[in-house]
Here is the input.
Amino acid sequence: MPEWVVGAGVGVLMVQVTARNSTEGIGSIKGVTWVSARVADNRSAKMANVSNPPEDPSEALQPPRGAGRRSKRFNNVMLVLIMTAITLLGAPLAALIMGAGVALPGTEQGPPDEARPGSESPVPGAPDAGPSGAPEQPGDAVVATFNVLGNSHTLATGKAPEMDAGPKRLRRAMRLLDEAGADVVGLQELQRPQAGELEEYAGGSWRLFHAKDDSENALAWRRTTWQLRTARTVDVPYFNGNLRPMPVVRLRHRETGVDVWFVNVHNPASTAQFPAQGEHRDAANAVERRLVRQLGADGDPVILLGDFNQRAEAFCYFTRGGLLQSASGDRRDAACSEPSYGGIDWIFGTRDLRFSGWAVRDDDEVGITSDHPLVTVNVILP
Here is the structure.
């Protein structure tokens, strides 16, 4: 059979297949786009506590009015042009079209490019793979702990007089939290001038809770992400065993509706002024462990965070018996080996939570803000 006849027949069949696929594709693509937009709208409505009436799902799958008629007219014109070209040029044109990757019914295509050896390439913007090889999950919220170095420490009589005053450093701390995307944070050493600066800086976007007459240990959260359910303080042994109030809040995550308990603590360090505080740190740990058990009894997740002034000791104590897990990703073995994270600023959570993206930022910008790092982690709620 002459080659031009074969070429013409193949060309007609490919045009028919291509025309049918292009007509069907219009509705599917429009439908996917429309459905995604509706999901986004419904999520926004949920966050605003507004319920939208359900819409007819069939609308999402309908092509624009008149799209089918326009496509058919276009395909008829293209059919005439292609038939003319095939008649004149014959088999070479048919081979060229087949080489463009159009598959005929009943024929096999080669494996997709990404399956061919040597063709792998990273996808721009794709998240890094975690230990299991799966992408890290972004999480429902970003939790942080930050000892912001009290204002008194950077006065002329303080231990770091070369550093900026507390209010200026507090503004820098809030910018660091913004950069990290944090929406709930435990703050230690938040003295009165800094607490006032935070409330002025936040302009109502953050809410702050601490004891009435003691702002040094506080919890702050973004109003757009969390809703306050309950707030109180618990007395914990501090320097020389003197009790100090630590904040405890129960927040509801607006998007998921999950309630979470947050406890922020600052346990005593052994210093030149207050030496040998180990006994009081242990007493503080015991109070905090009992509190976690009590708060978790109702089934809500609990996050304990703060400046524990302990490294492996804090890790081993709070992960004992599986009460809590470290958000750092360190796993406790039977002997409680030294964790890979060696800091004293910790974030722990009950085992119904999942954590990813643990980050300890201690660069120059943090260094001129505080003498502690900024610690953040993504949390995935149950």
Remarks:
- The chain has two domains: 3-115, 141-380.
- The chain is about 35% helix and 25% strand.
